[in-house]
Amino acid sequence: MESSRRRNDNDIWVLPLEGGQPWPWLNKQFNDALGRFSPDGKWIAYQSNESGRIEIYLQAFAPGAPASGGRWQLSTNSGANPLWRRDGRELYYISADNKLMAVEVTLGEEVKYGAPKELFALDSLRVETIGRGRAMTGDGQRFLFTTIEEETSLTPFTVVQNWMAEAKK
What we know:
It is elongated, with a radius of gyration of 22 Å. A hairpin with a 6-residue loop joins strand 4 (43-48) and strand 5. 22% of the residues are buried. The strands form four sheets. Strands 7, 8, 9, 10 and 11 form a five-stranded antiparallel β-sheet that branches. It is mainly beta. The protein contains one helix and 13 strands; from the N terminus they run βββββββββββββα. It has one domain: Neuraminidase.
């Protein structure tokens, strides 16, 4: 670990479930987080602030080895919280202006990807975009989001303890 490394930087580690020790897959001086394996397990999409803002990156995964080889930035105007479609041909993320974005990807010997496309804005839906409060169907046609409840004034209430004894009187 470098002495200049800040303590609040995140790394992406892999935990093998069939024995073995956890190991750092991506261990850089940036906030690398929310790594997501592609459905075939050969790629990892993750968010990083390496460019100076949070963006979505894609990199090949080899079991037992740290990240190496080519890396592709899939987002163009910031992006967070990557999520794969079940067939691995599309990746979703949330843009800085709070829109759900989709990028078509073709993975193999050569990586190809399209321009990010806006699916819909999340602002009016009061969607919780921080964390993992979302899911989708395998075909990417329907999404579930955790929403933020509007603040309401609190209604006072009274807690009555030992009410059974009071009821018998």
